[in-house]
Design goal:
Blueprint (H helix, E strand, L loop, with lengths): L17 H17 L5 E5 L1 H4 L6 H8 L4 E5 L5 H9 L10 E5 L2 H5 L6 H18 L4 E4 L11 H17 L5 E2 L1
Parallel strand pairs: 1-2, 1-3, 3-4, 4-5
Helix pairs in contact: 4-6, 6-7
């Protein structure tokens, strides 16, 4: 029998940072208060959390009226999002849409995860959302390119994005 080692990108893992624990608790309060009134959830890292900073005016005008909540935390990798999803951030929610952008930090951390590991992590996040929220449609964004010029990481990200597009091409619950 062939044994596959457990990948860090699919193993739910909290971060041991005081600010992260505080942000996670803050988001849990939002989830607990909003509950089933959240029609759209945004799940991801700093790009998602950025809607609270530079994107705040747009969020307030266009997204908040849709019943949107922001579950983004700066620096998160797939394993951190998985931990949050499995430990309360979906509790009591029944959104119609989950907007997901995750995976870039898996490439940017040390040690850098392989393309296969990052792909598995992003897929694990999407599948957790589909499993925990049976009526949700997932809008999965591609991983943004990194760096000012051509580099190895851009090629790796492109490969993962191509694989994600192929995987979810015929999934009626996911739009890539």
């Amino acid at each position: 029998m062939f044994l596959v080692p457990e990948l860090s990108t699919i193993t739910p893992q909290p971060r041991d940072l005081e600010w992260w624990v505080a942000r996670t608790a803050q988001l849990q309060k939002v989830v607990d208060e909003v509950g089933s009134n959240a029609n759209v959830i945004f799940v991801g890292d700093s790009i998602t959390q950025g809607w609270e900073g530079n994107g705040a005016a747009i969020w307030k005008k266009h997204l908040a009226p849709l019943g949107a909540i922001n579950l983004g935390i700066s620096g998160d990798c797939t394993e951190h999002v998985l931990w949050r999803l499995k430990n309360g951030h979906l509790q009591g929610l029944s959104p119609e849409l989950a907007v997901v952008m995750i995976g870039t930090n898996n490439f940017g951390q040390s040690p850098v995860d392989t393309e296969t590991e990052v792909l598995a992590g992003v897929v694990a996040v999407v599948e957790e959302l589909k499993s925990s929220l049976p009526n949700v449609h997932v809008l999965l964004h591609d991983i943004f390119p990194r760096g000012q010029t051509f580099n190895q990481m851009r090629g790796s990200i492109l490969q993962v994005n191509q694989a994600l597009q192929s995987k979810y091409d015929n999934d009626d619950r996911v739009t890539f």
